[in-house]
Amino acid sequence: MKFADLLIHSASTMVTMEGHSGSPARGEKMSEVGLREDGAVAMREGAIVAVGTTEEVLAGGWVGPETRRISAQGKVVSPGFVDPHTHVIYAGSRENELSLKLKGVPYLEILKQGGGILSTVRSTKQATDEEIKAQTRRRLQTMLSLGTTTVEVKSGYGLTLDEEMRALRLIKELDSEQVIDLVPTFMGAHAVPSGYSEEEFTNYIIADVLPQIAARNLAEFCDVFCEPGIFSVHSSERILSKAKQLNFRLKIHADELDAAGGAELAAKLGVTSADHLLQASDGGIAALAEQGVIAVLLPATSFNLAKNSYARARDMISAGVPVALATDSNPGSSPTESMPLVLTLACLYLRLTPEEALTAATINAAHAIGRADEVGSIEVGKQGDVLILDIPNLNYLPYHFGNNPVGTVIKRGKVVWN
Ligand code: NIG
Ligand code: FE
């Protein structure tokens, strides 16, 4: 018998998230995090081979002379965080918009004046492949240090066929060149560039862009910014229906700034996830629950837009909508890489318990990007993506905020950050 490469043992608390890999956790199941006291996990060749108490794992025969042992005594062990909604592939930054925001200029007004997303489109177009990759690599490195081991990345700062293909190609390259696993999403319908009407640009995406992205297999998901003044429910339905025909899985930025029926459209199309949802109607929430659509909530965006308005997570959980959490990391509405910050905001403002928040940031987030068979829980057969958190108990995770609770990050069974 071959021995494990790595053993984490003696964790005060190990959160396994076991039992949710088949379908996302909803309702009361979001509180079932699979706690083990004196927990241990053994990994070999990148995968988890044994999970249990320290005594059980040691008795299982996996631990031999060549096994590296790390004690997690007094600490919490959890699955690596999965961030299922980011826009990290871009060049530049937009700190200049802070003063506009503080003067009360709305986010969509900045975009209408040619700033916002369109300003990042310009800075990205001017950058070389290497510059975009170097800047994105740094963001991913920050994410890793904060415990994130799998990340969805959307294109959408290109808005032409060539620039969108370039972004998706760079995501693929970065996926193989650094530690975090990346899941690519095509989001060409992120803003309407100047020179186009909404309808003309929608036609362009449908006829000229989507089929090329599909033919080259550059993305798994297709996403749309469905928002009045950007892409209407009608345009979003046209784009996502075409994407579905081309075998993309679907996502939608829905009901973020205005109630427009985005959640209802998400349910009608059977998307994998509907994201933001601050203004989702009661009927929209019921429809998401009915269809089993995952709500990806982004409290760091609410926080950063400073509008004191957060998604109705408690109503969603009561209605049976599976909830996931993400950073929405992007240069405008959410310039952060921190899932620990998102967990704190989720507890304070979405009113999730620490258990629900951690479920939302691990196994439900993995479901939201089609990776629940591989990551999101500490179970035999899954990838060895494990965190040792430098905290005494689970409540401490959202409680002590603005710092990094992560002590050690293990990706595919190897220590990659500590
Ligand atoms: O999810 N809503 C659209 N896209 C991003 C913002 C992108 C940006 O401002 O650059 C979001 O908030
Ligand atoms: Fe977003």
Automatic annotation (TrEMBL):
<feature type="binding site">
    <location>
        <position position="333"/>
    </location>
    <ligand>
        <name>4-imidazolone-5-propanoate</name>
    </ligand>
</feature>
<comment type="function">
    <text>Catalyzes the hydrolytic cleavage of the carbon-nitrogen bond in imidazolone-5-propanoate to yield N-formimidoyl-L-glutamate. It is the third step in the universal histidine degradation pathway.</text>
</comment>
<feature type="binding site">
    <location>
        <position position="330"/>
    </location>
    <ligand>
        <name>N-formimidoyl-L-glutamate</name>
    </ligand>
</feature>
<feature type="binding site">
    <location>
        <position position="190"/>
    </location>
    <ligand>
        <name>4-imidazolone-5-propanoate</name>
    </ligand>
</feature>
<feature type="binding site">
    <location>
        <position position="253"/>
    </location>
    <ligand>
        <name>Zn(2+)</name>
    </ligand>
</feature>
<protein>
    <recommendedName>
        <fullName>Imidazolonepropionase</fullName>
        <ecNumber>3.5.2.7</ecNumber>
    </recommendedName>
</protein>
<dbReference type="GO" id="GO:0050480">
    <property type="term" value="F:imidazolonepropionase activity"/>
</dbReference>
<feature type="binding site">
    <location>
        <position position="85"/>
    </location>
    <ligand>
        <name>Fe(3+)</name>
    </ligand>
</feature>
<feature type="domain" description="Amidohydrolase-related">
    <location>
        <begin position="76"/>
        <end position="416"/>
    </location>
</feature>
<dbReference type="GO" id="GO:0008270">
    <property type="term" value="F:zinc ion binding"/>
</dbReference>
<keyword id="KW-0479">Metal-binding</keyword>
<keyword id="KW-0862">Zinc</keyword>
<comment type="pathway">
    <text>Amino-acid degradation; L-histidine degradation into L-glutamate; N-formimidoyl-L-glutamate from L-histidine: step 3/3.</text>
</comment>
<dbReference type="InterPro" id="IPR011059">
    <property type="entry name" value="Metal-dep_hydrolase_composite"/>
</dbReference>
<keyword id="KW-0369">Histidine metabolism</keyword>
<feature type="binding site">
    <location>
        <position position="94"/>
    </location>
    <ligand>
        <name>4-imidazolone-5-propanoate</name>
    </ligand>
</feature>
<comment type="similarity">
    <text>Belongs to the metallo-dependent hydrolases superfamily. HutI family.</text>
</comment>
<keyword id="KW-0963">Cytoplasm</keyword>
<feature type="binding site">
    <location>
        <position position="328"/>
    </location>
    <ligand>
        <name>Zn(2+)</name>
    </ligand>
</feature>
<feature type="binding site">
    <location>
        <position position="256"/>
    </location>
    <ligand>
        <name>4-imidazolone-5-propanoate</name>
    </ligand>
</feature>
<keyword id="KW-0408">Iron</keyword>
<dbReference type="GO" id="GO:0005506">
    <property type="term" value="F:iron ion binding"/>
</dbReference>
<feature type="binding site">
    <location>
        <position position="85"/>
    </location>
    <ligand>
        <name>Zn(2+)</name>
    </ligand>
</feature>
<feature type="binding site">
    <location>
        <position position="87"/>
    </location>
    <ligand>
        <name>Fe(3+)</name>
    </ligand>
</feature>
<feature type="binding site">
    <location>
        <position position="253"/>
    </location>
    <ligand>
        <name>Fe(3+)</name>
    </ligand>
</feature>
<dbReference type="GO" id="GO:0019557">
    <property type="term" value="P:L-histidine catabolic process to glutamate and formate"/>
</dbReference>
<dbReference type="GO" id="GO:0005737">
    <property type="term" value="C:cytoplasm"/>
</dbReference>
<feature type="binding site">
    <location>
        <position position="332"/>
    </location>
    <ligand>
        <name>N-formimidoyl-L-glutamate</name>
    </ligand>
</feature>
<dbReference type="GO" id="GO:0019556">
    <property type="term" value="P:L-histidine catabolic process to glutamate and formamide"/>
</dbReference>
<dbReference type="InterPro" id="IPR005920">
    <property type="entry name" value="HutI"/>
</dbReference>
<dbReference type="Pfam" id="PF01979">
    <property type="entry name" value="Amidohydro_1"/>
</dbReference>
<feature type="binding site">
    <location>
        <position position="87"/>
    </location>
    <ligand>
        <name>Zn(2+)</name>
    </ligand>
</feature>
<dbReference type="InterPro" id="IPR006680">
    <property type="entry name" value="Amidohydro-rel"/>
</dbReference>
<feature type="binding site">
    <location>
        <position position="157"/>
    </location>
    <ligand>
        <name>4-imidazolone-5-propanoate</name>
    </ligand>
</feature>
<feature type="binding site">
    <location>
        <position position="328"/>
    </location>
    <ligand>
        <name>Fe(3+)</name>
    </ligand>
</feature>
<dbReference type="InterPro" id="IPR032466">
    <property type="entry name" value="Metal_Hydrolase"/>
</dbReference>
<feature type="binding site">
    <location>
        <position position="157"/>
    </location>
    <ligand>
        <name>N-formimidoyl-L-glutamate</name>
    </ligand>
</feature>
<keyword id="KW-0378">Hydrolase</keyword>
